[in-house]
TrEMBL record:
Keywords in alphabetical order: Cell membrane, Membrane, Transmembrane, Transmembrane helix
UniProt-recorded name of the protein: DoxX family protein
Record family assignment: Belongs to the DoxX family.
Primary localization: membrane
Subcellular location: Cell membrane
Membrane topology: Multi-pass membrane protein
Cross-referenced PANTHER family: BLL4328 PROTEIN, OXIDOREDUCTASE CATD-RELATED
Any one GO cellular component localisation term in the record: plasma membrane
Pfam families assigned: DoxX (PF07681)
Transmembrane stretches, start-end: 16-38, 50-83, 103-128
Length: 138
């Protein structure tokens, strides 16, 4: 058994851990925006687009974290981060390091990865689905 085979065997677990971390980070962004925690002021309810982004971050981040409706939540999150990047950051410079848009860019591409690869292992959807292997769909 080669090194690649050993690494391949751990892909579902690694993908599941990636999903949990990105979901937790996104959820914390939403909580900070909506509730004014983690050294951030709360955004007033209904304030476009920041309050709505906070709702998406909190709800979709929690869904991704738990591995429930992962692909749909990741798709919405990826789109929201692309919108944030191009409307709030890209006008200030072409590259994320120039315009302060590194987080939205990374979130966008990380969630897009989950859209195509699914939740990996350690997901609630995998626990409740008996007809497929854990982490294969979601």
């Amino acid at each position: 058994m080669g090194a690649t085979d050993r690494l391949d065997r751990h892909q579902p677990l690694t993908l599941g851990l990636f999903r949990i971390v990105i979901g937790l980070l996104f959820t914390s962004e939403g909580a900070a925006t909506l509730f004014g925690v983690l050294d951030r002021d709360a955004t007033p309810a209904g304030d476009w687009p920041f309050w709505y982004a906070g709702v998406i971050e909190l709800v979709c981040g929690a869904l991704v974290l738990l591995g429930v409706l992962t692909r749909a939540a990741a798709f919405l999150s990826s789109g929201a981060m692309a919108f944030a990047y191009f409307t709030e950051h890209q006008p200030d410079g072409l590259f994320p390091l120039q315009n302060g848009g590194l987080s939205p860019a990374l979130f966008c591409w990380g969630f897009l990865l989950l859209v195509f690869f699914g939740p990996g292992s350690l997901s609630l959807s995998g626990v409740f689905r008996r007809d497929t292997a854990p982490g294969s769909r979601g």
